[in-house]
Amino acid sequence: MTDANVASFEAFLQGWMVRQRDYLNELLSAQQHHQELQDDDVRQLINRVICHYGQYYEEKSRIAHHNILLVFSPPWFTSLERTFLWVGGFKPGVAFQVVNTALEDLSEEQRQRLSQLNNKAKGKERALNDELAKLHESVAAPPLVDLARSHGRMCFNRSFMAEEDAAPSTFKETLESLVANADALRTNTALKIVQILRPSQVVTFLVAVAELQLRIRSWGLDKDAQSGGGQE
């Protein structure tokens, strides 16, 4: 395992989470004063938040290229956060759950468009799950990989994670491609949701997403502290 890469990403994530809280405060302020804000001001804030998420995926792509196995069992996440992983990140379907929970003023047209988008995303999720299952079946040595088939989660045993070079290059390249495709599905789905919503609804959606993420991380940190650490 390349400790320098882990330390670099952990430092990035720490700063990113601080900015995430700052953006959440800006979004909450925009919610409270929406009648006083110009549409352009709201759109600029939305664009900044979207760019903020883009920075995360750019940095994640870099570390995935250095060591793709880290993305499947990231030491920078708490044990609770790791339970939500699907092909190295959250399931696209989570975004629709957030929309349905946070927004009560969706029009019928918006609901229909979101439903169509959700169905397409589910189809692509299933395709990625199938690819992940086929990859597992192609690995001859059982100790190499422990695969939790449900929800496309993959867990690597300690000896395998400790020795990055043990994995064949073609295996790592395929995993990297799967994560890149999953990340593209996550980001494209979120962007299409944003396009369907009105600016004020987007702000509410982004508030709910950030609050959920920060809440899960806080719970995870507390849980790991009580159990003596989240490293596996």
UniProtKB/TrEMBL annotation:
Q: What is this protein called?
A: DOG1 domain-containing protein
Name the keywords, alphabetized: Coiled coil
Alphabetized InterPro entries for the sequence: Seed_Dev/Stress_Resp_Reg, TGA_domain
What are the DOG1 domain coordinates in residue numbering? 6-226
MF (Gene Ontology) = sequence-specific DNA binding
State the coiled-coil residue ranges: 100-138
**An annotated GO BP:** DNA-templated transcription
The keyword Coiled coil is assigned to this record: yes
- Which PANTHER family does the UniProt record give? DOG1 DOMAIN-CONTAINING PROTEIN, PROTEIN DOG1-LIKE 4
User: What is one Pfam family matched by this protein?
Assistant: DOG1
